[in-house]
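Re: [ENG-882] Designed sequences occasionally contain unexpected residues at chain ends

Forwarding the minimal case from QA. Structure tokens:
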């Protein structure tokens, strides 16, 4: 175990793929279809088969995802804990505090349309 993983992280990586626990569907029909993990070293997308995890539902309005991935390119493990809410909010734990992030970022096309849209100074 020369990767600096603790016992809980090793057990997580021995478990099932994260995709086998998805989708997560909330009572209001909000849904988490998939989670894309990126290597903490090279920022490449890690294939689903190399992403392990578990989903916990502490309340009907929240899903907590513990996810781990292995990047074959860098020989590196990455771990992340995420919270998803039925109102569309998403948070990650940075080791000290929970931080909000955009779980459904706008596409390149949407960003380009916004960038080139006429700006009105009224």
């Amino acid at each position: 175990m020369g990767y600096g993983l603790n016992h809980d992280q090793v057990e997580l990586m021995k478990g099932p793929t994260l995709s086998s626990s998805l989708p997560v569907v909330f009572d209001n029909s909000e849904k988490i279809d998939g989670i894309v993990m990126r290597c903490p070293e090279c920022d490449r997308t890690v294939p689903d088969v190399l992403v392990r995890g578990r989903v916990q539902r502490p309340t009907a309005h929240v899903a907590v995802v513990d996810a781990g991935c292995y990047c074959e390119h860098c020989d590196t493990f990455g771990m992340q804990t995420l919270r998803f809410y039925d109102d569309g909010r998403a948070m990650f734990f940075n080791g000290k505090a929970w931080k909000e992030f955009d779980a459904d970022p706008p596409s390149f096309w949407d960003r380009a349309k916004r960038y080139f849209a006429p700006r009105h100074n009224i």
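QA comment: On inspection the terminal residues look reasonable. The mean pLDDT is 88. Proposing we downgrade this to a documentation issue.
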